[in-house]
Structure formats: structure tokens, C-alpha cells
Amino acid sequence: MSAGFPLSRTDRPVPESERARILAEPVFGSHFTDHMASAAWTAQDGWHDRRIRPLEPFSLHPGTAVLHYAQEIFEGLKAYRHADGSVWLFRPEANARRFARSARRLALPELPAADFLAGVEGLIRADESWVPPSDGERSLYLRPFMFAADPFLGLRPATQVVYAVIATPSGSYYSHGITLWVSDRYTRAARGGTGAAKCGANYAAGLAAEIDAREHGCDQVLYLDSEGEGTLEESGTMNLCLVTSGGELITPALGTILDGVTRDSVLTLAAGFGLAPVERTVTLDELRRGAADGTITEVFAVGTAVVVTPVVAFKGEGYEFVIGDGTPGKQTTTMRKHLLDIQHGRAEDSFGWMRRVL
Ligand SMILES: *Cc1c(COP(=O)(O)O)cnc(C)c1O
Fold it and tell me: For residue range 155-176, what is the model confidence (pLDDT) as tens digits?
């Protein structure tokens, strides 16, 4: 039982054999668990109607604000099963804090951290059988989100809001090194914009760049700053890290990029791998020169979905270059394994990042 989010169980769960088939080889985001968490907010009554209930479609008036003005934010975190059968979250308090920051930026009400956690944990308890067995990299991905539900076309901060959490089993995202398309046509975020908020609108605006990337044979986009200064920002869903021959782990400073939980975790873990964590501005020129003269030895992308993923090459309009010998680097592979080991309970949780749910 989760305090504040009472459970009403579905009487039509996905049959066990079907669930086993889905969990055997999860395809991220294409299958959902039996239940969802939800809560409602109104300007008058604040947060209320907290529930864990059968997964079902929303019924929305065609004039609902989110459908017109994209007033929506979300989060992403994973539940991991450990070898003893227990189930854990990785730094969920950081996601709760970021959700509140995103809410402020999008003029949505802040959800108290206790409610964020109770919704997520209540859903995991209701759908425990959907947390994949302990092995390798499988997990249950949780997607908390919030949107403006006013059936009103005038532009104003929401007076009716829905918070919900859904869950989808997740396997390994990228198993190989990826190539990034350096977009000189699109940017992701401008100073004063919504780059630091985890909002759906940022993703909608990035899809045209993703199409460009795919047309150029790349896996994802790398965005540069919007002021034309040629500095590295991030990928559409992942933060970027560079390893130097001088033993630094460099990542672009915060501001217009997303403050990733994985980014922060990797910066914290760096010292244990003999790397000095550095947050600063990095230019594309510096990256190209460093790749050419060997002072930038490895590049990787980080995020909850992809964990730590090697970036082995970059392409842009009229140029391309590889990092190192074009294969995943040693620090990248070690970092990826160590983070996964902490999350899956195979390495000591020295920083107190894991939170037990079951
Ligand atoms: C979610 C997200 C990330 C990764 O953040 P994590 O907290 O590590 O999952 C990076 N960039 C963007 C744009 C994101 O939306």
C-alpha cells in the first residue's frame, strides 16, 4: 500500500504468458504495465484524487490546453531488480526535484516530492511482476508526467492539471557506439528558453533535426548553442561527456541544457576512475582538434535510458571525424559497467543513491 495513492487493481491484467514474452525482450516504450498512477490538481483544491488504477486512456475535451499550447513536462527513471529479488530506484529524489523545477518553468503547479515518489513507488508495487528479472541491463522504465487539462483556449497558467505515471519494460538501448549528427540548421535551446526543463515541447522541436540525423546515417543529433558560438550543448535526450588524455572528464556547463541525473552521477564517479570532473564550455573546434591530435580520447553520451553510451564518430555538413580508433573507449566501457553494477546491485552503493521499493 502506498500512502496517499490507494490501489484499485485491474481485473484484466495482461496474461502471464504474454507478459513473460514482453519481458524476455523488451522493446522500449511499446508495451505498458497493467496500472497507472494519477492525481489531479485544481487552483481551488490543490492536489487531490491520488490513485493507482488500471491503465486506461484519458478522455480529453478537444479544447484541452495541452493539445494546443504543449504545457507538459515529464520525467524518466528506472526500477531495477536485484539478485535477491528486491526492487530499487536510482536517485528518484533528484527526478522529483527536477520535476518541480520543470513545473515552475512551464507555469504548472509543483508536485510535492513525497507525492512524486508515492506515485512512482505505488505503481511499481502494483506492477511488481513487470520488473524484469535481475540480469544484465533490463529494468522497468517509469514515466511520470503532468499536463494542463483546462478545456480553455485562452492563454493562461493552468487551473486544472493531471499528474500521471506509466511504466514500460526496458532493455538495452544502444548496444554499439553511436554517431552524432552536428546540426548547424537547428538548435535545441536559447538562453532564457526551456532547454533546462524536461518538457515535451523540446522534443517536438527536435524531431526535424532527428530526421536530418537519420538522413545522414547518424543515430542522434548533437546540438550547438543558439548564439552561433559553436559550443557543444547536448544530444536530444542525452548529455555529452569527453575524456582527455590529461585525465579530465569534461561536460558542457549547465544553463540551456538538461541537468541530467546520469550526468551528475558520472561527474561524481569520475574521481574513482582517476578522472578530474570539469564542467565548462567546449567548442566544436576544440572537439575536432582534440579528436585529430588525440587529446580527446573518448566521448560518451549519458542519460537514464541509454546509461553510458559510447560516441565513436561525428558528422556535420561537409565533414566527419572519429574519436580514437572509432570503437568504444576503455573509460567509457568501465564507467558504463560500474554505473550499471551500482544500479543492479552488483557494486557497492557508496553514495547512497539506491532507494529500495520492494
Ligand atoms: C532526460 C534528458 C537527459 C538525461 O537526463 P537523465 O536524468 O540522466 O536521464 C538529457 N538530455 C535531455 C534533453 C533529456 O530530456
Answer: 888 999 999 999 999 997 666 8
